[in-house]
Design brief:
By secondary structure, the protein is of the alpha/beta class. It is built from eleven helices and eleven strands. Strands 3-2-1-4-7-10-11 form a seven-stranded mixed β-sheet. Strand 10 and strand 11 form a beta hairpin. Helix 1 crosses helix 2 and helix 2 runs antiparallel to helix 3.
Length: 323
């Protein structure tokens, strides 16, 4: 289950156990519950989208019942109903995507995305497709995509993250999933998506994003560093001991060296074998999990509410949260 749906069901259960007697108290409890959920994940972006959607639904729900307890019961019922129906959204997206996948298409995708997998498996029923998938380090989830596609008979090759530009001329389009689609029409997804979009744009290849509508998020990042997941430790330099400065005695007519670097060029460093060269946990922790792709790099967003341009995402979000 996607984090946004899990969040909606969690907040629905919170309402079942709530002792709130007014809408103000209930909404406060939901906000507190959402904050508690966020504290238990390192990447709260898609979870935020689900919490935001459910709290807006509760706030905007027409209060026609005379009993607040009855209203809470109805809200819980509607939340659970939505989560159940939303499971089918990936099938709707896969059906919309089908018309854009021609026979013998060569597709480049990134990491592992459940909605992208649904679209590819659906297309495989009636069309011949081949797929390149990025390795998606450090978690290597592209290998999982390769295993699933290969098992069902779809030709698939894993591509190094650093070889995206190399392979771009061989593909018909790029297809990625999403952590969230934000108010600007931009995309937040597994790190590496942004560079794929930049390269696709330069190569004049369509860049398509698949996103369930419960991942539409009222967030407006202007750069990578505006994302909720960013913190000062990401891509920071390590603290090193100060370099020693040595000033030797001077002799007449000879200027002393300003400083000594402290590096012994004769120092022999034992190289690691190629099988041992991998990023340490500390190195990995200094890298981002997700990145932001600007709307001008995205061709179309396929969602359960239709096929949208990035500009249309903003309009949809405004309408959705305006009631």
């Amino acid at each position: 289950m996607s984090p946004p749906l899990a969040a909606i069901l969690s907040l629905s259960q919170l309402m079942v156990e709530s002792n709130a007697g007014t809408m103000f108290e209930l909404v406060k409890e939901l906000h507190d519950g959402a904050e508690e959920l966020k504290r238990h994940t390192t990447n709260p972006i898609s979870l935020n989208a689900g919490c935001e959607l459910f709290i807006a639904f509760v706030t905007l729900f027409p209060h026609e019942s005379d009993s607040f307890a009855e209203l809470k019961t109805e809200l819980v019922k509607q939340g659970q109903k939505y989560a159940k129906e939303a499971i089918s959204y990936r099938n709707k997206i896969a059906e919309l995507m089908l018309d854009f996948i021609k026979d013998d298409s060569v597709i480049l995708t990134h990491s592992y995305s459940r909605v992208v997998m649904r679209a590819l498996l659906h297309a495989h029923k009636t069309k011949r497709i081949s797929v390149y998938v990025t390795e998606a380090r450090p978690r290597g989830l592209g290998v999982k995509t390769h295993e699933v596609l290969t098992a069902v008979g779809i030709p698939c090759t894993v591509v190094l993250d650093s070889a995206v530009a190399y392979v771009m001329d061989k593909v018909d389009f790029v297809l990625v999933g999403s952590e969230a689609v934000v108010e600007s029409g931009g995309l937040i997804n597994a790190v590496g998506s942004n560079q794929m979009a930049i390269i696709a744009k330069a190569a004049h290849k369509p860049f398509y994003a698949l996103a369930e509508s419960y991942k539409f998020h009222r967030l407006f990042p202007l750069s990578q560093y505006d994302l909720p997941t960013h913190n000062p430790s990401i891509l920071s330099f390590p603290s090193l001991p100060p370099r020693p400065f040595v000033t030797p005695p001077t002799t007449s007519g000879v200027s002393p060296p300003i400083a000594k670097s402290g590096i012994d060029e004769s120092l022999n460093v034992t190289p690691t074998s190629s099988s041992e060269r991998s990023m340490s946990a500390e190195m990995t922790a200094k890298n981002p999990d997700v990145d932001y792709t600007r709307p001008d790099l995205i061709s179309l967003v396929f969602s359960d509410v239709g096929i949208l341009t990035p500009e249309a995402i903003s309009q949809y979000l405004v309408a959705m949260f305006a009631g």
